[in-house]
Amino acid sequence: MVRWQPGARERLQAAALERFAAEGFDGTTVAEIAATAGLTERTFFRHFADKREVLFAGQDEFERLFVAGIEDADGTDPIAVVAAALEGATGFFPEDRRAWSRARQEVIDADPGLQERELLKLSKLAGAMTDALRRRGIDPTPAALAAESGVAVFRVGFATWIAEGEERPLPVILRAVLGELRSLLA
Amino acid sequence: MVRWQPGARERLQAAALERFAAEGFDGTTVAEIAATAGLTERTFFRHFADKREVLFAGQDEFERLFVAGIEDADGTDPIAVVAAALEGATGFFPEDRRAWSRARQEVIDADPGLQERELLKLSKLAGAMTDALRRRGIDPTPAALAAESGVAVFRVGFATWIAEGEERPLPVILRAVLGELRSLLA
DNA sequence: ACTACTGATGACAGCGACTGACATCGCGGC
DNA sequence: GCCGCGATGTCAGTCGCTGTCATCAGTAGT
């Protein structure tokens, strides 16, 4: 007889996404999520810093992929390095997570508080990329601009990938968006 | 005998910035802010949607300036239009608000929750700029990229303007940053 | 002058997010 | 077989935030 079932964290995440999709973020209490997962509210807050964070766990892993992509890239042109990192990070979003990503994004797009959290995560990502670029000897301002541009390209590309009817894989889309940005500022 | 002193909103904003700077955002309760301003907690929430918003009132005006700058600009090149809007919006930050802006930014930089709110405001700004560009007949993706780039330039430029030792006025800095972005992607 | 109405505020009760402190108990190590 | 660890439960409490109703100076209409 086990005292508690394993996978509490994953159960909480699944329960949260399900409830948020059905009742909305504000219409769901943490106690409800916990009960759905067979746990208590207090345990929820032991796994996630706050109610929003349950939708953003794993984001650190994503950030590490980006930074690793920058560190492993060749050359010294900031934009080229960022482009390489974009390629590497797409591994985080395989084709079979497209539907799940869409469902999650719909929940986020429906709540300003969740949008704030997403923006903070992306901002931290840009900061981590900036640091990684500077470690390669790139000057502060170009590093920040390249990182911000990279994140902007990722955002636009990701939204496109999620969109209804879109069938191109994420890496292809990202290359196209980066090309558009380049020609825009040429 | 007046029933209540005028300027409640401004008193609350001043009290909030003062307390946040002294005790930190988390270390300050809304009731304390209200008491400092000679009001009650309930009245605070009649003036501001939430505790964070007291630092971001006036942001709508800022957004309108940007959009107006886009609408009044000449030409069809997205980046040129955005550059013109950047010029116009600097009127929101005259030289004598530099010290105040720095104090406010220090408070924001010290709290993740406030950073989230700032990012949401900037994101909304980018969205409004995108819409304004599209109304000028610019295609969606170039419009979004130009708007995001414009906001990125503003962020980097504003941070520079605020920085210790910096003396150039904001418009000059913004032109320089935009030039850097251009040469970066050339 | 009397009355009705408005508009900013106060008072109060209540919900939900989040936290700290302490108890519980299966499991693995010794 | 005992002991400590670690994930969980329980409970009380703070604070952000909201709905509701009362208050009362000033204003407009009669």
TrEMBL record, chains A, B:
PANTHER family xref list: HTH-TYPE TRANSCRIPTIONAL REGULATOR RUTR, MYCOFACTOCIN BIOSYNTHESIS TRANSCRIPTIONAL REGULATOR MFTR-RELATED
DNA-binding region listed in the record: 29-48
Domain annotation HTH tetR-type: ranges: 6-66
Pfam families: TetR_C_14 (PF17754), TetR_N (PF00440)
GO molecular function: DNA-binding transcription factor activity; transcription cis-regulatory region binding
UniProt KW keywords: DNA-binding, Transcription, Transcription regulation
Lineage: Bacteria, Bacillati, Actinomycetota, Actinomycetes, Pseudonocardiales
The keyword rRNA processing is annotated on this UniProt entry: no
InterPro entries given in the database record: DNA-bd_HTH_TetR-type_CS, Homeodomain-like_sf, HTH-type_TetR-like_transc_reg, HTH_TetR, MftR_C
Record protein name field: TetR family transcriptional regulator
Entry annotated with the keyword Transcription: yes
Gene3D superfamilies associated with the record: Tetracycline Repressor, domain 2
